[in-house]
Specification:
Length: 242
């Protein structure tokens, strides 16, 4: 209980906080800001996904930056290379630190996305962002196991600095490309409701397996008291690592 109380007051260390991305899967920017501010002791990264971006557009990115968060722009791009390149360039100029694109889109599309993203940021005088390739969606239950390593190779060759994969693929990813950033969704406290995540893991498990960025949504955002849920989720982690 003492660790939970400590986490409740102090949140996570800066190093751990930078590894936690809060999935702001809501359709209202005011609600997103309220959630993000309330949970800022634990989360250094705001994930703006399709729902919030469709509702609020680029303002969602600017508002999260203004509130001191790094932005993970989860638009899961998949289109012809020219279109992805141009759209990624806009995302770079907006100040997103991470941008997702589907590895399924192939090497030319990924390469165009990476180059566009970097160019957009460079022209705006911003630090180089990270293009993050989605390997497989966790909802794609039929995807064969070898597809993750294959897509990882394609992504790395195209210049992506990161991938999204489930926790069970972390070992393969670590071995195949140690310097590629590994982003992992499907995080839950032990024994909690998994929602539609097939193989949830705790934050401590994901970090121990080599995750660099943890995407966390409903385990905290759907709780009656999101801050208490975050304190509980990260409590064991806090006592393990500080
Ligand atoms: O399950 P949770 O709400 O923590 O999900 C957070 C993020 O994980 C979502 O924003 C979505 O991008 C991703 N997700 C996923 N596979 C699912 C459900 C959600 O990768 N089955």
């Amino acid at each position: 209980m003492a660790t939970t109380a400590k986490a409740e007051i102090e949140g996570l260390s800066p190093e751990l906080r930078a590894k936690m991305a809060l999935a702001l899967d809501v359709d209202d920017l005011v609600e997103a800001v309220r959630l993000a501010r309330r949970l800022s002791p634990w989360f250094g990264v705001a994930k703006v996904g399709l729902e919030l971006y469709t509702a609020a557009g680029p303002d969602a990115v600017g508002t999260m930056l203004d509130n001191g968060f790094d932005v993970f722009l989860d638009l899961k791009m998949h289109d012809i290379p020219t279109t992805v390149g141009k759209a990624a360039s806009v995302c770079g100029a907006l100040g997103a630190k991470y941008l997702t694109m589907h590895a399924h889109g192939g090497p030319d599309m990924l390469k165009a996305g990476v180059e566009g993203l970097h160019l957009g940021a460079r022209n705006a005088g911003l630090e180089e962002p990270v293009a993050v390739a989605i390997t497989v969606l966790t909802s794609d239950a039929d995807a064969p196991d070898h597809i993750v390593p294959n897509r990882l190779r394609v992504a790395v060759e195209a210049g992506c600095g990161g991938i999204v994969c489930s926790a069970r693929h972390l070992k393969d990813a670590r071995e195949l490309s140690p310097r590629t950033m590994r982003v992992v969704p499907g995080i839950r406290p032990a024994g909690a409701d998994a929602h539609d995540q097939p193989n949830p893991v705790t934050p401590a498990e994901a970090l121990a397996e080599g995750a660099d960025l943890l995407v966390i949504g409903r385990a905290v955002t759907l709780a009656d008291d999101p801050a208490a849920a975050a304190a509980e989720l990260f409590g064991p982690l806090d006592s393990r690592t500080t």
